[in-house]
Design goal:
Helices cover 61% and strands 0% of the residues. The chain has two domains: 2-23 and 149-209; 26-144, Endonuclease III, domain 1 (Orthogonal Bundle). It has 217 residues and is mainly α. The protein is globular and about 55 Å long. The two termini are 16 Å apart. The structure holds a DNA duplex (13 and 12 nucleotides).
DNA sequence: AACCAGGACGTGA
DNA sequence: TCACGTCATGGT
């Protein structure tokens, strides 16, 4: 039963690696294991949204460099990023690659959150933004807005294909529904958020340590 | 020196 | 829907 594998792998990974403390934020110098009170400010929330765009198909170390540059430019608020010169913005995020696309994506998102203010965006609203696909939307919803959407990324697909849960070619929503259906009965409310956040982070940790693709467990 | 990294989008079957 | 090319830098 695929659901049992999904259910049982979480405590195993948690035992193996311990809490990961995602999403990394510059305010707490990166990760914050066992502290689920983040983000604490609108600025930190926006930093997560920016990071979610910048990390697309890109190593997180490259994103840290870019976020550092943006922070020094004081551009980590919607209004400030909107006012940022395009060339300056591209130079700041250069390390993350795709800087022509990503600079435009960031401005689109900045405009959206500038209008959105403190309101929690819907998944549909996020998906309408250029540069925000399903994974990025769910990352923003789960880590910036504490909404129960399990993030399905390349690591998740790889790990659970090896565990026999997937074939590997299923659509995003099919894979996500398997996680939701398996985990929803066990975890409710704030605990569900916590588990979705930790589980995804643990999957990434596990996949990174077995990057040749031969994890068993 | 290929190959991959916490994907999304446009296009043509 | 689905497969494929494109976008681009940085580390191994």
């Amino acid at each position: 039963m695929p659901h049992n594998v999904i259910i049982q792998t979480y405590p195993q990974l948690l035992e193996l690696y311990g809490p990961r403390g995602w999403w990394p934020l510059s305010a707490c110098n990166g990760y914050h294991p066992n502290d689920y009170s983040f983000p604490k400010t609108a600025s930190q929330r926006f930093e997560i949204c920016v990071g979610a765009i910048l990390t697309q198909n890109t190593a997180w170390t490259s994103v840290e460099t870019a976020l550092d540059n943006l922070s020094q430019l004081h551009a980590l608020t919607p209004a400030a990023l909107l006012a940022c010169d395009d060339q300056v913005l591209k130079t700041a995020i250069r390390s993350t690659g795709y800087y022509n696309q990503k600079s435009a994506y960031l401005k689109t998102m900045a405009a959206f959150f500038h209008d959105c203010k403190a309101r929690t965006p819907t998944r549909e609203e996020l998906l309408q933004l250029r540069g925000v696909g399903e994974e990025t939307a769910d990352s923003i919803l789960l880590y910036a807005y504490q909404q129960p959407f399990f993030v399905i990324d390349a690591y998740t697909r790889r790990v659970f294909t090896h565990l026999g849960v997937n074939e590997g070619k299923e659509s995003y929503r099919v894979v996500q529904k398997r996680f939701h259906d398996a985990l929803e009965p066990l975890y409710q409310g704030q605990e569900r958020i916590l588990v979705y956040q930790e589980y995804h982070a643990l999957i990434v940790e596990h996949a990174k340590r077995n990057h040749s693709g031969k994890q068993k467990q």
